[in-house]
Amino acid sequence: MESAPTPPGHDIDTARRRRRWLMFLLWTVLFGTAAISNILTSRIDADRYNVPYAMWHIVVNEISSPVISLLLLPFLLVACDRWPLHADTWRRHLPLYIAGSVAWCVLHIAGMDLLRLAAYHVGGDGYDPGNLGLQFIYEYLKDVRTFFYIVLLTHAVEWFGRQSKGEARLLVAPDDDVAPVEPIDRPERFLVRKLGRDFLVATGDIEWAQASGNYVNLRVRGRDYPLRSTLAALEARLDPSVFVRAHRSYLVQLTQVTSIEPLDAGEARLHMVDGTVLPCSRRYREALRAVAAGAEPAVARA
Questions:
Q1: Model confidence over 193-228: pLDDT tens digits?
Q2: 156 shares its domain with 194
Q3: Which of 121-125, 193-197, 271-275 has the lowest mean pLDDT?
Q4: Which of 132, 165, 198 is the last residue of a domain?
Q5: For a designed S-S bond to 192, which of 91, 199, 229, 266 qualifies (C-beta 3.0 to 4.6 A apart)?
Q6: Bridge partners of 271?
């Protein structure tokens, strides 16, 4: 019996999960070696300066921090996938990462102190974290570096992974000297090369397209397929009565728009069939409504 074909995007998700595991294992090694080094240097310093510090105190203090960091790490890796730092998104996403670094530090301190309190209690001793405000400042100066090292390295690995496996490219017209009958080629599908395999993405299946640096992410049934192109070049290849620009970063298929919600200052939100909400800028709002009014699919106004 023949096995069912692998659905498009399955290999993309599998590779992404592998990269997450790779990053988790890498940081486990880095955190682990740093903890061992800190334990040894703390023991040497305690002996050198005649500080009556029990070995188990040192182990608890140095192990608790990387343990909490590793527990928080999977959430940060998922966030890196959810909010990538591309050329056209980093300004919008950077504040999220700055806020995330503060949340990382707060959770890190809370978890670390709770682990130490529990361990010291079991050991028959008491743990005093000291002034929490000073502890936050001290820990944040260290945590913010670790946080953004993880973010930058994760995005670098993702970028090199995409480059090594190849990205999608627009189908090019045949190279001949005969002028085409139609001035504009409307392809029925796009060839997507991803992770060493070729996929055909049907034009009619594209729900919307989002600009992402030198690429355009094609959304098809909840999955993104990165296409090496500008959004303007892709728009020129598609039927303008079906695909309409809604924002400088978004191109939508009208059949996928269920309603247009007006906002202040002339902007709007587009509610899509799958529940996603996309921005619609003032510049494109009226043009989109005009095309929608002449199109067969009904696009409701909020």
A1: 666 667 788 888 999 999 887 788 889 888 888 888
A2: no
A3: 193-197
A4: 165
A5: 199
A6: 259, 277
Nearest to 263 by CA among 273, 271, 254: 271
pLDDT tens sequence across 246-265: 999 999 999 999 888 887 66
Q: Which residue bears the tokens 């959770």?
A: 107
Are residues 32 and 129 part of one domain?
A: yes
Which amino acid does the sequence have at 206?
I
pTM of the model: 0.56
Q: Which domain holds residue 147?
A: 10-165
What are the DSSP calls for 247-290, one per residue?
A: ETTEEEEGGGEEEEEE-GGG-EEEEETTS-EEEE-HHHHHHHHH
Where among 165, 197, 217 does a domain terminate? 165
Q: Is 269 part of a structural domain of the chain?
A: yes
Helix (H) or strand (E) holding 224: strand 223-228
User: DSSP 3-state assignment of 4?
Assistant: coil
The single residue listed with the structure tokens 């029925």 is: 188
Enter the DSSP assignment of 238.
Answer: S
